[in-house]
Amino acid sequence: MRANRARQSNRGGKALQRRPEAATSFYWAKDLTIKSKLAGRAVAESATEMVEIVLPNDANPLGNILGGRVMHLIDIAGGIAAFRHARSPVVTVAVDHLDFLYPIRVGELVVLHALITRAFRTSLEVEVKVYREDYLTGKRQQTSSAFVTYVALDPAGKPREIPPLIPRTVEEKRRYREAQGRRRRRLALSARAHRQYFEKS
Ligand SMILES: CC(C)(COP(=O)(O)OP(=O)(O)OC[C@H]1O[C@@H](n2cnc3c(N)ncnc32)[C@H](O)[C@@H]1OP(=O)(O)O)[C@@H](O)C(=O)NCCC(=O)NCCS
């Protein structure tokens, strides 16, 4: 009811706004309503770009970066975006499907872009895109894309509530909507994997 009123009062407006007087706040736009006790944060507040040069120690005998090293960098870039949003320690709980489309050679730059797509209650999804860049020409090519889920922890190591994400642009809102479907599929897959492949503890 309250959310409906809020939505109606903002019919023409594009940006999400907050009802400052409410104990539980509603953020609203034409097509989204987000409910939280915590103040929301914009995507840009945690967006992260990380750049590394591929050194011989990172590479396989062919002179290409090791897949495991790319996974490590994805986790670091995604983790930085996640704790910038949560402003608390986070742990990685899930990594979705990951492809390595092109090799990244020793001497090339690895550029990682990490964006929060959606914050849930204690967890959030980060999209990390990986590019190789020739530092002489500046030419960039995307080599991987991954969705990583992190959980924020309180000082006792228990999952803690995090601020909602406030998507503003059309792209941010698209990513926000799609994240819900990915979460549903991820949790279903994870439950199935736990039943099939994990030993009972
Ligand atoms: C992350 C961890 C604290 C979650 O503990 P838990 O008992 O499952 O906690 P909950 O059931 O309350 O789940 C917490 C959140 O994680 C999410 N979650 C749990 N398993 C998930 C999975 N496989 N994929 C995506 N999200 C998951 C839940 O949906 C919930 O999110 P929400 O609050 O936004 O809805 C616990 O699994 C852990 O400590 N894992 C190890 C993390 C770690 O050390 N990572 C580094 C590599 S080992």
Task: Please list the strands of the largest sheet in the order they lie side by side.
Answer: 5-7-8-9-6
Helical percentage: 25-40%
Which CATH architecture is right?
Roll
Number of strands: 10
Describe it.
With 201 residues, the protein is of the alpha+beta class. It has a single domain, classed as Thiol Ester Dehydrase, Chain A (Roll), CATH 3.10.129. It is 28% helix and 30% strand. The chain has three helices and ten strands, in the order αβββββαβββββα. It has helices spanning 2-9, 67-86, 170-197; strands at 17-18, 25-28, 33-36, 41-42, 48-53, 90-95, 109-119, 123-133, 140-152, 165-166. The strands form three sheets. It has a five-stranded antiparallel sheet. The radius of gyration is 19 Å and the shape is globular. The chain starts with a helix and ends with a helix. The site of coenzyme A (COA) has 14 residues, from β6, β9 and α3.
Would you spell out the secondary-structure blueprint of this structure?
Blueprint (H helix, E strand, L loop, with lengths): L1 H8 L7 E2 L6 E4 L4 E4 L4 E2 L5 E6 L13 H20 L3 E6 L13 E11 L3 E11 L6 E13 L12 E2 L3 H28 L4
Parallel strand pairs: 4-10
Antiparallel strand pairs: 1-2, 2-3, 5-7, 6-9, 7-8, 8-9
The site of coenzyme A has 14 residues, from strand 6, strand 9 and helix 3.
